Amino acid sequence: MADVEAFGDWLRDLAKTLHDNSAYLTELDSAIGDADHGANMDRGFQAVVAVLDESSFETVDELLKKAGMTLVSKVGGASGPLYGTFFLRFGTALAGAEITPATVGEALKAGVGGILARGKAELGDKTMYDAWAPALDAYDEAVAGGSDLAGALGAAAEAAAKGRDATTPLVARKGRASYLGERSAGHQDPGATSTTLVLESAARTLA
Ligand code: ADP
Ligand code: MG
After folding, report:
1. Taking every annotated instance into account, which residue ranges of this chain make up the domain DhaL (predicted)?
2. Cα–ligand 1 centroid distance for 145 (angstroms)
3. If pLDDT is split at 50, 70 and 90, which confidence band does 2 have?
């Protein structure tokens, strides 16, 4: 039950963070996309909070799967199905598992595997995966070094921020930004930016 509460706190904190950063994310998306990433994420997570408010969940996997399904159904655009699949697979991987740094690491990998299965991005394509990939590596390294969950998530968030920053010079090869070709260079990727917010929020709340 304590775990269900902690993961619920994460989703609520994330919803607030995405709401507060909505204009910023949309501004990033206006440079290389269609100026809706902030609105998409905000709408999706407000819907997740509405679900949390009206339902109670017995297990972490039920909670996360419901969040994932809500994102898939409420958010148009690329990011809804991608983040929705992340939460669906992240939750599924935690079914019946004790919450430990190791099991959460496996679940993060499963979630990101879902993003790749849907989006087919590769490292350097200037997508959210450019934040997720270094985050997974940093998480594993932290766990191998004996970090607790909050420490490993903190390391993952820091690595995601570096990956986010490194998207700026890249030319997009996936998603709407790829339509701009070379002109997509010089702008930070919106999805890599929201992924960093997801992990920073997790590090704050899943102690
Ligand atoms: P849309 O591009 O449909 O308007 P959003 O603006 O909500 O959707 O999200 C855009 C973000 O989605 C991009 O910044 C990028 O990080 C991510 N993205 C787009 N396509 C892919 C993909 N194939 N794989 C991974 N991430 C992707
Ligand atoms: Mg967009």
Report:
1. 5-204
2. 33
3. confident
Indicate the pTM of the whole model. 0.98
| 23-61 tens-digit pLDDT | 999 999 999 999 999 999 999 999 999 999 999 999 999
Q: How far is the CA of 37 from the centre of ligand 1 (A)?
A: 8
Tell whether the model's pLDDT for residue 148 goes beyond 60. Answer: yes
Q: How far is the CA of 102 from the centre of ligand 1 (A)?
A: 29
**Domain 4-205 top-level CATH class:** mainly alpha
pLDDT at 1 over 80: no
Q: Which runs of consecutive H residues, i.e. helices, occur in the chain?
A: 2-20, 22-32, 37-54, 60-74, 79-93, 101-119, 129-144, 149-166, 190-205
d(CA 128, CA 64): 20
Question: Minimum-distance ligand to the CA of 128?
Answer: 1
Give, using CA atoms, the residue closest to atom 22 of ligand 1.
119
